[in-house]
Amino acid sequence: HMYRATKEDLKVKNLILMDLDKQAMETFGKLKTCSKKYERMKNQRNKFANLTQSSSQALAEMKEKIKILQNEVEILRNEAQAKDKSCQEEVRLLQNEQNTRDA
Length: 103
Hints:
This protein is mainly alpha-helical and about 100 residues long. About 100% of the residues lie in helices and about 0% in strands. The radius of gyration is 44 Å and the shape is rod-shaped. The mean pLDDT is about 95.
């Protein structure tokens, strides 16, 4: 009778072990899946961090170029105004000469 009870007990413990092995394999599978997802997310995060850094650098460079171009436009505007003023003065002088000559 004790032999039979021990055999039954062994059978139950083997079933429990098999169930625990199955649970361990499932848990290991979930761990593997989560690990892959983590790596994928980490790689995406790094990629986006690099893109953000590149974009920030490109933006800073563009702002600097805009500032330089604005300065160049201001210089050209001032030169154009000076030439326009010079032309107006030249026209005034020519008109004065013509008026003096005609008089």
